[in-house]
Design a protein that fits this description.
Largest interface: A-B, 40 and 34 residues
Strand content of chain A: 35-45%
Strand content of chain B: 25-35%
Radius of gyration of chain B: 11 Å
Mean pLDDT of chain B: 84
CATH superfamily of chain B: Hypothetical protein rpa1041
Structural class of chain A: mainly beta
Structural class of chain B: alpha+beta
Strand order of the largest sheet of chain A: 20-21-22-23-24-25
Low-confidence stretches of chain B: none
Order of helices and strands of chain A: HEEEEEEEEEEEEEEEEEEEEEEEEE
Oligomer: heterodimer
CATH superfamily of chain A: YVTN repeat-like/Quinoprotein amine dehydrogenase
Radius of gyration of chain A: 23 Å
Chain lengths: 319, 92
Amino acid sequence: MKVTRRRAVIAACVALFLAAFFALGAVSHSTPASSTAAVATGSVGAVPSSMWYWTMAVSPSDPNVLVVGSASGLYRSEDGGKSWAPVGPKAFNATSVVQSGNELIAAGGKLGALSSAITRVGQARQAPVGPLLIASSSDGGKTWALLHPSGLPNTSVQALANGTGSTASTLYAVLTNGKLYSSTDGAKSFKLVSPKLGIPPWAIASTANGFVGGDMDTGGYASPNVSGWAKAKYRDAKGGLMVMEYAVQPNDPKHVLMSAFGVEGSTDGGKTWSPVLKSTVMFGPVAWAASSPNTAYAVGFDSSVWRTDDGGKTWKKVG
Amino acid sequence: MKWGGVVSFFASEHAMRAERVLERAELPARLVPGPREVSPNCGVAVAFRWEDEPKVEEALQSKKIRYEAIHRFDLDDEEGAGSGRVLTGETA
């Protein structure tokens, strides 16, 4: 009797094991084409999927409110990057978001009119030339109003950058056609600074030493006044030339973060760089929080979100 | 443009090299953030047209590009992605 009961228990265990084994096997096999699985577009714990992660800004008043600009538009987080929701204009290739005074300014191109969110031009790559889309938010990115600034042609924006020092109230806009404009009235009007930037239009920042610029294929450059650029000696962690995006610390324009493989940091306005967040993953958006000067965020192309609260010395994965 | 497949890699530099190889072979290709569903190790993947899959595989192998796997995966430029769908998983 005991033997029979033991056999029954063993048989039940074997049956349970086989059932679990076959269930797992069914999951691990390739999904047939007829039974597609939708991809999550909004999520807790990572930035929603997109064809490209371009840029990020932090709310002027709350270090836990972030806005990421992507090929799928703007995504906003109210909890320091743990969860995200889409905000702002639709069909928006949001290549740049910056804080300008008490507002956030987002710029890029209208996606529906563009064949893609990113394209190659010669050795470099950029957002394609297309119609302009620029918007502002005065409530930390919750709501957005379209802008129609005078003096700025109807050409998509590749990058926005705030001035520093004597030009602290200036907002620079690099267009996808390589022209550089500036605004001193919070993006209400712009004037032409240079008809040709002189480097591939991708990322640009104003630091304590002038300007730094760069792109992910031809590398970094430096210029005292954007009229002439010198190639930077910088090499990324893999020995390559990748520059993804810059972020200048609001109260210290010598302190700059730059994303590439992980995040690089500079304390001399972009002359020299050293890794502050080591990673084999390509990073894109990076931004400081003006209301908490030692806080910054970075987003990896694996959708991860990282935060530092000590000026970039240590980083913690938050999403 | 609609992309029907992605190649995942063990390292980002392999993905960038693969994109170059495919472009030189005149096969439309695009570096993209790695879709979570194909679990890339390096964060980036290369999107391509699924009808080019045999040529993509041949081009990567002939240039000895290390890759993790080739997946059938829908991506749509016009929607800025977010519309990706895993169709099949194929390991190289």
